[in-house]
C-alpha cells in the first residue's frame, strides 16, 4: 500500500470510531429540569403530577401546571407504580431501545479488530528494521 492509501485508511478508521463514540454518548435534547427523587415523590403525594414517562431508570414527568422535570429512580422501587396509579397519574413506560444485530456486532468487534490491526502494524514495522532508519 502506498502512503496515500494508508493515510486515507487511518482517517477513515478514526472517523468511524468517532461516529460510534458520539452515537453511543449522544444526549437527547429535552427541555426538562432536574429534580431529586424525593421531591418527585412529594409532588406525587401532593397530586401535582399529571403524567409520568418511565424509560429504564429515567423518570420524566409533567406537573399539572405543564412544567417538565426529570429524575432517576432507584433500581428497586417496586412501590413507585402503585403510588402513581393510586394518585391517578398517567404512566407511560418506554420499551428499551433495540439496535440491529449488525450495529451490535460492529460496536462490539470494532475495538477488538482495531487493537489487532494496530498490533499487526507495529509488528510489521518492527520486522522491517534494517534499511529504513540508517544503521550506525
Q: What is the compact description of this entry?
A:
The protein contains four helices and five strands. With 136 residues, it is an alpha/beta fold.
| Average pLDDT number | 83
Strand content: 15-25%
Radius of gyration: 26 Å
Spans of at least 5 consecutive residues whose pLDDT stays below 50 are none
- In CATH, the topology of the domain at 31-121 is named Signal recognition particle alu RNA binding heterodimer, srp9/1
CATH class of the domain at 31-121: Alpha Beta
The 3D shape can be described as: rod-shaped
Distance between the termini: 28 Å
Give the beta-strand count.
5
Strand order of the largest sheet: 1-4-3-2-5
| Number of DSSP helical runs | 4
What's the architecture of the domain at 31-121 in CATH terms?
2-Layer Sandwich
For the biggest sheet, the summary is: 5 strands, mixed
SSE string, helix = H, strand = E?
A: HEHEEEHEH
Structural class: alpha/beta
Share of helical residues: 40-55%
Describe this structure in words.
The chain is α/β, with parallel strands linked by helices and 136 residues long. The chain has a domain at 31-121: Signal recognition particle alu RNA binding heterodimer, srp9/1 (2-Layer Sandwich), CATH 3.30.720. The chain is 50% helix and 18% strand. It is built from four helices and five strands. It has a five-stranded mixed sheet, with helices on one face. The model has no long low-confidence stretch (mean pLDDT 83).
